[in-house]
Specification:
Helices cover 25% and strands 29% of the residues. A hairpin with a 2-residue loop joins strand 30 and strand 31.
Length: 751
């Protein structure tokens, strides 16, 4: 069967090709991104026919890819479209194809032309709830007056992201939160903020805030949860300041604090027992049980506080720590023995304590060998003149065994207290002084405290020396618990964390935590200060009194009484208008620990003559830093004391002229102006001082900067030789000036 070959003419091919796009266009779906207006829908058949004639080869491509066009309408019904893709070549009316150049502008710069009115845009399907406006979509709608408005779709600002970082802010953590590399953030810190850090270092929060704002973030510091802990600033805890003088209406009379001192065989204990027995409150079974080292009695309704425990050593230790608890010292002297060495030592301790009055009780007057006048004579020799001899010292003859004149002694105590007008404020912040301290089984560290001001109550937090505590219980001198203690009241305090020292001051703090923190700081400083040696007075140390006059204080101990008298008289005969020699204590016997404590408290030097130093005294001297000098020849001791007194005086400076030189010529050198001189007499020394004399008037005084002979530096130039001299920064030499050379000599002053 023959095959029929059909050949299509060019006209048929064109018609066939033209029909294919016409069938394809209605079947295409409009993509969601292409937006067409109502005017475009009206022109669709005409445009489809025109496209069928122009597109022959690219028709298949057009069928595969969707069209993306935008049209603009002019006011004279002329429509102009802006295509987002290139158009194929279009033919003009004369058949010449014209090249039409189109390009895709940046979406951010694609704006509507003026004179157009914005049509309501169709809704755009977006995944996010707030639908953003179509980007640069322009639609044209013809208006009745021929004017169109501009399409200006506002771009909504995205909310700033918030980053949360817990301080301190580390560079690498901040870079991670900002989505940056570490080196990028480090470079930005270096370039813009002039901050040089590495990835593991921290930056200030304000710098981090500025960087976060640059990158569109808001930096917030992480807030800690309640109870999560915070960085608190260290609060410095200090002890309460010294009390200010209370107002006159707040001050009230307080009981006097009286200490008994004297020789052990002179009836001191018997006298205190006699006072206790006569002042016992009626009905107390078994008398008074002495629980603490201080107790109170009442005489005619006036309370009196007695200190029992402080002997010489305790009293000196208390005074060395600055405690001035005692108001009146009762010096007990036996009428048959008179003043004994320990009695004299007690007098010296009492005199050294400030604001302390001495009252003498002459005991054992009932003995046949009693000689009261001899005791008064010895007291007068110690500058304690009795009242009946025209002095100020109250003396009361008593008998502890028979109870004679006990009432008179108590009356004199109250009278002396009235004269002193002892007052304290019970409403001030409580302060007290430790009399003695001990560790008791079942109670721990306890201390006997005398309240000086304020009212100490149970539950008060306190600091005492290096230890803190809280008052758990207060026990009076009868062993009964009390809730509070006013001024001059002795009580035993329970609640210490450690054992305090005698003389430590008890201060009430605001809270227990502050007291504990202050205690820890004091204990730490005490541990650090153990390596440091306290600086005490030595023979070479300058000791100046309040008036500016220099004073040398010594504690003198000798082997026998004759040597003591000889040394004391010889030392008192040393006359000096510039330095005073003060013998604080002079006694017979070896140097004891009491002597060291007395010298430590008074800033004195211990001098021994033909005596030894006790073992306890050696330890105390090292601990207190007291200097001990031992001598065996009396003349050597006197000479050393004189030299020490003279050593307290500053040496005098005197000028001694050693030579003169005359300026002959002036040289201008690179180092400055130098005077060429001829030594007329004496010598010119390099280490000496010199002054320039012009017409016998000094114009400069200073040291020699340069001394040369020819080209060599020399130490000195003798008379008749020439030299070059440069004096400090002086440069106004004149020919004929005289350079006077002198030295300053230190001459020790004499007493």
């Amino acid at each position: 069967m023959a095959t029929k070959s059909t050949t299509k003419s060019p006209a048929r091919k064109a018609a066939t090709t033209a029909r294919k796009p016409a069938k394809t266009v209605p079947q295409k779906e409009t993509p969601p991104k292409v937006k067409e207006s109502k005017a475009k829908a009206a022109e669709k058949p005409a445009r489809a026919a025109a496209s069928a004639k122009e597109k022959v080869a690219p028709a298949r491509t057009t069928a595969a890819a969707p069209e993306k066009t935008e049209e603009k309408a002019k006011s004279a019904s002329k429509m102009e479209s802006v295509s987002l893709i290139d158009k194929p070549k279009a033919k003009s009316a004369d058949g010449v194809s014209k090249v039409r150049t189109t390009f895709l502008p940046p979406i951010s710069k694609l704006v509507a032309k003026p004179g157009l009115t914005a049509a309501p845009p169709p809704p755009v399907i977006e995944p996010t709830p707030p639908p953003p406006a179509p980007v640069a979509e322009v639609a044209a709608v013809s208006s009745t007056d021929g004017q169109a408005g501009e399409v200006a779709t506002p771009v909504e600002e995205e909310p700033k992201n918030v980053i949360t970082i817990k301080p301190p802010i580390i560079v690498k953590e901040l870079a991670t939160q900002l989505g940056m590399k570490n080196f990028q953030l480090i470079k930005e810190l270096m370039d813009d903020f002039n901050i040089f850090v590495n990835a593991n270092q921290t930056i200030e929060p304000d710098v981090a805030t500025k960087i976060a704002e640059r990158h569109g973030f808001v930096l917030e510091k992480e807030r800690r949860e309640k109870g999560g802990g915070v960085h608190k600033e260290e609060k410095v805890i200090v002890a309460p300041p010294p009390p200010e003088p209370a107002k006159e209406e707040e001050l009230k009379l307080r009981a006097p604090i009286i200490t008994f001192m004297g020789h052990v065989d002179h009836g001191k204990t018997s006298l205190m027992d006699a006072i206790r027995k006569t002042r016992v409150v009626a009905g107390e079974a078994g008398g008074i049980t002495q629980h603490i080292g201080a107790y109170r009695v009442e005489y005619k309704g006036e309370p009196i506080t007695f200190l029992d425990t402080p002997g010489h050593a305790a009293f000196t230790a208390m005074r060395a720590r600055g405690a001035s608890v005692t108001d009146i010292v009762v010096l007990v002297v036996a009428a048959d023995d008179g003043l004994m060495p320990q009695t004299i030592e007690a007098i010296n301790h009492a005199k050294a304590a400030p604001h302390v009055k001495i009252l003498v009780a002459i005991n054992k007057i009932d003995l046949a060998s009693a000689n009261i006048d001899r005791v008064k004579k010895q007291l007068q020799e110690r500058e304690l003149t009795p009242e009946d001899w025209g002095g100020e010292t109250i003396t009361v003859p008593v008998s502890a065994t028979r109870g004679t004149n006990i009432d008179q002694l108590l009356e004199m105590m109250t009278l002396q207290a009235e004269v002193m007008e002892l007052k304290a404020s019970p409403t001030a912040k409580p302060r007290g002084t430790v009399i003695e301290a001990q560790v008791e089984a079942g109670r721990g560290p306890t201390a006997t405290v005398i309240v000086q001001m304020g009212t100490l109550r149970v539950g008060d937090a306190f600091i005492c020396g290096d230890y803190s505590g809280k008052v758990k219980s207060l026990i009076d001198d009868r062993g009964q618990p009390v809730k509070s203690a006013g001024p001059s009241t002795p009580v035993k305090v329970l609640g210490f964390t450690g054992l305090p020292n005698a003389g430590d001051e008890l201060l009430v703090m605001d809270s227990e935590r502050e007291a504990k923190q202050l205690s820890e700081e004091r204990q730490e400083s005490k541990r650090a200060g153990k390596l440091a040696t306290p600086q005490r007075a030595t023979l070479e140390t300058l000791l100046e009194a309040a008036d500016g006059k220099k004073v040398l204080r010594i504690v003198l101990k000798t082997d026998v009484q004759g040597s003591l008298e000889a040394l004391t008289s010889a030392l008192n005969q040393i006359e000096s208008k510039k330095v005073d020699l003060e013998i604080i204590h002079a006694g017979v016997g070896p140097i004891s620990e009491n002597d060291i404590l007395l010298a430590s408290a008074s800033n004195a030097v211990v001098v021994g003559f033909n005596v030894k130093v006790e073992n306890m005294a050696v330890t105390a001297a090292k601990h207190e830093g007291v200097q001990v000098k031992l001598y065996s020849i009396i003349y050597e001791l006197l000479d050393q004391i004189k030299e020490a007194m003279a050593g307290l005086l500053e040496p005098e400076h005197r000028e001694s002229v050693i030579g003169h030189a005359e300026v002959k010529q002036i040289f201008q050198l690179s180092r400055g102006i130098v005077a060429g001189c001829l030594v007329t007499d004496g010598r010119i020394a390099r280490t000496a001082r010199a002054r320039v004399l012009r017409r016998r008037q000094p114009v400069y005084d200073g040291g020699l900067a340069t001394l040369r002979r020819f080209q060599d530096d020399v130490k000195e130039v003798r008379s008749g030789l020439e030299c070059g001299i440069k004096l400090g920064d002086f440069s106004e030499y004149q020919v004929g000036d005289i350079i006077e050379c002198y030295v300053l000599e230190q001459i020790a002053q004499k007493l």
